[in-house]
Structures are given as structure tokens and as C-alpha cells.
Design a protein that fits this description.
heterodimer; A: about 280 residues; mainly alpha; Formate dehydrogenase/DMSO reductase fold; B: about 220 residues; 4-stranded mixed beta sheet
Amino acid sequence: MSFGPNPWQQTSWDARAAGNFIGGGAGCGLLVFTWLASVQDSLRSVLIVLALALVSLGLLCVWAEIGRPWRAINVIFNPRTSWMSREAALAPLLLGSGALALFGVAAALPLAALLALGFLYCQARILQAAKGIPAWREPLTVPLLVATGLAEGAGLYWLFAPWWGQGTNLLWLGFGALLALRFVLGVGWYRRLARQLRPRALRAVNQAGHAFNAGSLLPLAIVLGVWATPLAPGWSAALQALAGVLAALGGAAFKFMLVTRAGFNQGFALPHLPVRGVRR
Amino acid sequence: MTRWAMVADLRRCVGCQTCTAACKHANATPPGVQWRRVIDMEFGEFPDVQRAFVPVGCQHCEDPPCMEVCPSTATKKRADGIVTIDYDLCIGCAYCAVACPYQARYKTERASFAYGAPTENESLRHDDARLAVATKCTFCVERIDSGLERGLTPGVDPEATPACVNSCIAQALVFGDRDDPQSNVSQLLATHKHFRMHEELGTGPGFHYVWDTLDDDAGGGEGKI
């Protein structure tokens, strides 16, 4: 038996913190997909610049959130146990290798993609290590956030690639597989939370779930539709871009909600009530 | 070894918040910041209702999640179990605040005072280093350290004991060395049923809650007639 007041939404991290997860996740996913897709010509530069800009913007968001921004360098002091330190330590390597890839160093893009995967993993572990928030500390949060970031990145790729005449059937199906994986992980994550969270906290997670479902199932339906139906190239490109936008926006909205609306703590709880006066 | 710990006897606490006020006075925390607070909990439905007053704050955990996540190493744990924050290292990222399962950490962006202008006590104790960084209960570590230097015993001698414990009108708060079997906290825990909050998380809090005597035949707790 447990007694205690209702949990409440954490107020320590706001939209700026969410911005780091949104920008970092989508940017890293895009770098990985850019490498996997062997993107050519000017599109390669466009996508790398966009990915690095998103990661940088996310870091800028979190820099704007910290109380003492001029000692931000201290963030790297605890790589031994802190996933935030590890993320921060990877950031300059990621941005540097991305910049080298932009200037034509061939080996830099796979390195940047690898570092992006590491950065994305660190971000997921940051949330999962927050023991005070049951919805975040759930172990499935890690694969869910990694899959979300990759799906967002794939979505951004498909927002641009068709207009450059790039993107293969295999990559299109890979995008669909990522969306399906993200959805399956999300369902599993939610089911586990449903068994643990108090009703108020679960309602908040449900709200985040709308964006998640729409951002996963709608683009997945488009992926299957475009794959199965012969369409004029213009229509096909438009639908691919739409699916990409939906996947990216859905993931971003989910992470925004998860941090700023569904980040309920677990409140206080008493496994026993004090025995006073006549024993009950 | 020494392991400083606090015990709150839930049967004794009357929810007067004197400990909260004493903590605010001793540490000059700004409005809205309560390193020691007392939660008023109500359970059941009329007429079968119960009420409990629960002192909470930093639990000075054995395995503090705040320390693990802290990216700047500002949060540390001393050998005696007290969890500290180095205000000059902290970057104010508030990661520790979301990692703490006890909602014990605060971050105040700018200076504010209870009555607008700082009172004499607030002027004396205000510290700009505590702005925009994480803050929390320190177990009044300065009092403990200076008391030990003078040969005093924390938890026994008021000059070496946390302000909240000194102020408690019902002696519901007790402080002492958990590793010393003769200490007041060890004796209290040995003779009473007790628990630690959110034990399942494995943080090993240094804050214990007494809720009953060990002897089930006692017929009642503190209010026994």
C-alpha cells in the first residue's frame, strides 16, 4: 500500500530543454540517414548543413536554459557517470567531423554519422537517467528516443531528396520500417507506463501520445501507399515530402510534450501511515 | 565510519512548520524555496480519514541520483554521507532537480526577499553564489563541521545540530550517526518500525520515517492512552 499526494509536472526543464532533444535528435538522425543514403551533389551539403544547424540550435537552446551560461564548459567535467557530460563531449567532435564532411573530406561523413548515433544515444540516456520522472526513467525510453530521432532524420531526408531526384525504393521502405519501429516501441513504452503511473500522470502521457501516433501512423500509411501505388513523379515527390514533414513534426511534438507536459514526478509516498492513538 | 542521518517520527510531527521556518532563517532561503518542508497528507474518505505530516527535503542518499547525473561534478557526497553542492562549479542545468525523486532541489534565477527589501538576517546571509544554481538542504553542514571541531556531538549538542532538528517542538526530528549503534538515531530505529521513501529506487536515503513501535502489542503509538 502506498499513500501520498498526486504527482505534478516538473518545472525545472522547459521548452528550451525540449529544444535540445528536438534539434539534436532530428539533426543526428538526418546525419545518419545522409550517410546511409550516400547522398550526392548539392543535396549532400544542404542536408549536412541542416543537420549541423539543428544540433547546434539544440545546444544553443540548452545553453540558454542553464543558470550560469558563462561557465558552461563545466558541463564536460563528469563523463564518468553523467550522460550530459558525455553528450557535451561528443558535440564538438560531431560538429567538427560534420564540417569536414561539408568541405569534402570523404571519411568524415561516416565518422560524423557514428558520432551522431552516439550523441543521440547520450540524449536518450540523459532522459532515462532522470530518476525523479517515472515516464522518463522507463528503460524503453532509450530505444524509443533513438528510433524517434532516426525517424525524424529520415523524414527530413525525404522532405528534400525527391526534389533532387534522389532516394531509392529501399531507403523509402527503410523510412517506413523506422516509423513502424518507433510506433511499436512507443506502444510498448506506453503499456509499461500504464501499469506504473498515477492517473494524472498517465493522462499527460496520453496527450503526448496524440502527436506520436499521428507522426508515426500517417507517414507510415503514406509510405505504404506510395510504395504500392504507381503515381506521377510530382505527386510521388509531394507525398514523400509530406510524409517526411509529418514524421519530423510528430517526433518533435512528442518530445516537446514529453519534456514540458508529461514530465510528472512521482510525488511523495508513504508505505505506512503513522500509528497514533487507538490502533486502527 | 560516520553516516549522518535524520529520522522523522511521523507519530510526533504535528505539521507546525517550525522546522521549515527555522531552516529558512538559518539558511536565508528566498521565498518559494523550502529546503525543509512538511507535507500535509490526507487519506481516506469521511468519516474514515487519516492525516499525516511528513517532513521532506534532501534525503542525502547513499547512491544519490543527483550526483550521478551532475555534469559539472558540483554535486558530491562526503565520506560522512552528506551530499553537497559546489556553487562555484554548478552550471544551473537543473538536471539534478529532475533526477531527484524527492523534489528536494531548487534553482532561483534572481535574488528575492520575503518582504521586498532584505531583512537584517537576509542581508547577513544572502549569497549571490546561490543564484541560478542548484540549492538544497545541507544538513546544516557548517554547524556539524564547526561543532565537531569544538568536540561537540551532532544530534546531541544543539550548536552542532541542524536547525530544523533544534527547532522541532515535538522532538519529531532526530539527527545522529547511523553507524554508531549507541547514537540517538540508531537507538530510535532499533526500537521502532520505520521506512525510507521510494526505497524501491535504490537511492538509499539517509532520511528515515518512524511510523510505529516495534512491539505490536503496545496498543498504540505516540498517542496511546
